[in-house]
């Protein structure tokens, strides 16, 4: 099957998915959690049927606590996020909630200072850059050709943009926040993407040795044809598991599972339909450059 014949359509589909996310990233950005902004998070479970509103919680808040968001995280479960909350102020707030709702169960309580949050953000960015650089160098070394490393990195960049853009849109419309688990999902997506890409590239190398007389374009088509079924079969098992976690898992890991699910889907797509067509474009550019050099 001649997959490279439809390269323009593959790139067009990628643009249609990426552009809304990029626009959202530029316009709204990501919605950072307290992990990166600093402050306090308190998640509580109230008696069944109880409802906590902004108007109901404001009179109960300590004077030095600035509430940023109040959102429902489950049935009778609520998350309060805001400025840094001391232990005394936290106990005072919980006592006030107990007086109003009879019983209050603390599900999660976190306080992160501004220094720690800034350090965490810096380490996160460094981790993403380091991972991308090492993967590029590894693929370049493994296949002894710069174009393989660059194209694999561009495919990873494609997957990263899809995931970042998706969470920017989810954050704007549904209040989903990017936390440390999201960073874990992002790094996992990078590794998942390059894993499938290396499988296809390895097949390209084997076919080039086996069919010396065939054109590079024919080799690329054959490699995608021979590895596509295997990639899809492997990915479906992961996707089904992540889909189950997203639908049935608890609120704590739901968005982490969804981030991994998005990464698994886009990583499966990008290896044959982004990384390989990019190799074809690079090869065409090299051949045109050689022809223009000979004509001179």
Structure, described:
The chain has 296 residues and is α+β, with helices and mostly antiparallel strands. It is 72% helix and 10% strand.
Write a short abstract of this structure.
It contains nine helices and four strands, in the order H-H-E-H-E-E-H-E-H-H-H-H-H.
Series of H and E elements: HHEHEEHEHHHHH
Mean pLDDT: 86
What is the tally of beta strands? 4
Uncertain stretches: none
Largest sheet: 4 strands, antiparallel
Q: At the fourth CATH level, what is the homologous superfamily of the largest domain?
A: Multidrug efflux transporter AcrB transmembrane domain
Contiguous helical run count: 9
Name given to the CATH architecture of the largest domain: Up-down Bundle
State the helical fraction.
over 70%
Strand order in the largest sheet: 2-3-1-4
What's the N-to-C terminus distance?
37 Å
Q: What Rg is obtained from the alpha carbons, in whole angstroms?
A: 24 Å
Question: Which key features would you list for this structure?
Answer:
Alpha-Beta Plaits; 2 domains; four-stranded antiparallel β-sheet; elongated
Q: What is the element layout, followed by pairings?
A:
Elements: H1 7-27, H2 34-37, E1 39-45, H3 54-57, E2 67-74, E3 77-82, H4 87-101, E4 105-112, H5 114-143, H6 146-174, H7 180-210, H8 216-248, H9 251-295
Antiparallel strand pairs: 1-3, 1-4, 2-3
Helix pairs in contact: 1-6, 5-6, 5-7, 6-7, 6-9, 7-8, 7-9, 8-9
């Amino acid at each position: 099957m001649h997959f490279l014949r439809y390269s323009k359509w593959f790139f067009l589909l990628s643009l249609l998915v990426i552009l809304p996310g990029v626009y959202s990233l530029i316009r709204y950005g990501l919605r950072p959690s307290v992990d990166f902004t600093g402050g306090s998070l308190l998640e509580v479970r109230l008696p069944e049927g109880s409802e906590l509103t902004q108007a109901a919680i404001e009179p109960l808040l300590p004077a030095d606590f600035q509430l940023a968001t109040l959102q429902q995280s489950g049935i009778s479960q609520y998350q309060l996020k805001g400025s840094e909350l001391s232990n005394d102020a936290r106990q005072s707030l919980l006592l006030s909630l107990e007086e109003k709702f009879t019983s209050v169960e603390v599900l999660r309580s976190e306080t992160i200072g501004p220094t720690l949050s800034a350090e965490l953000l810096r380490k996160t960015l460094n981790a993403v850059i380091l991972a991308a650089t090492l993967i590029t160098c590894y693929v370049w070394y493994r296949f002894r050709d710069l174009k393989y490393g660059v194209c694999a990195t561009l495919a990873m960049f494609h997957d990263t943009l899809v995931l970042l853009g998706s969470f920017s849109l989810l954050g704007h419309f549904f209040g989903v926040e990017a936390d440390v688990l999201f960073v874990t999902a992002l790094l996992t997506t990078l590794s998942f993407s390059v894993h499938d890409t290396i499988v296809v590239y390895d097949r390209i190398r084997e076919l080039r040795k086996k069919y010396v007389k065939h054109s590079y374009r024919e080799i690329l088509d054959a490699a995608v044809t021979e590895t596509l079924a295997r990639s899809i079969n492997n990915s479906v098992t992961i996707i089904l598991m992540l889909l189950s976690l997203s639908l049935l898992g608890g609120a704590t890991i739901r968005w982490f599972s969804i981030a991994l699910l998005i990464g698994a889907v886009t990583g499966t797509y990008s290896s044959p339909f982004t990384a390989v067509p990019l190799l074809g474009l690079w090869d065409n550019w090299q051949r045109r450059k050689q022809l223009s050099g000979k004509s001179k």
